[in-house]
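Researcher: We plan to redesign the surface later, but first we want a full-length starting point. Tokens attached.
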């Protein structure tokens, strides 16, 4: 995609997010090695607040569906959609409306987001 087309997509996404924004402050825990050599969750460090939009999950991420006796069950009710330059990592956590969430998947699955207009984040409810 050319730079002009990418700029248009990013502007459209920005308007989409600003229409119904959610401010999210992720906390990130760095693993700490114990004396026995295993790792435990370290002290959580808050990341600066960032603007996203909650979007109903459309079953695009196949790992977020569980096959049950009654048929497929979505394990993710919503995904977060953010700008291409958001600071998020798998395992980050946040709270919103008295619910705790954990990041389980991030698309695109690359650190180079220079050619994309958005980041889509799959969540797990941690209540």
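Model: Full-length starting sequence:
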């Amino acid at each position: 995609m050319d730079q002009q087309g990418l700029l248009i997509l990013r502007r459209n996404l920005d308007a989409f997010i600003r229409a119904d924004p959610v401010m999210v402050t992720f906390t990130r825990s760095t693993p700490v090695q114990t004396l026995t050599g295993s790792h435990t969750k370290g002290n959580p460090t808050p990341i600066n607040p960032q603007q996203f939009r909650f979007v109903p999950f459309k079953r695009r991420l196949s790992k977020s569906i569980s096959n049950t006796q009654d048929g497929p069950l979505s394990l993710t009710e919503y995904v977060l959609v953010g700008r291409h330059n958001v600071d998020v990592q798998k395992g980050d956590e946040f709270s919103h409306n008295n619910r705790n969430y954990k990041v389980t998947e991030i698309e695109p699955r690359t650190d180079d987001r220079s050619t994309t207009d958005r980041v889509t984040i799959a969540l797990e409810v941690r209540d």
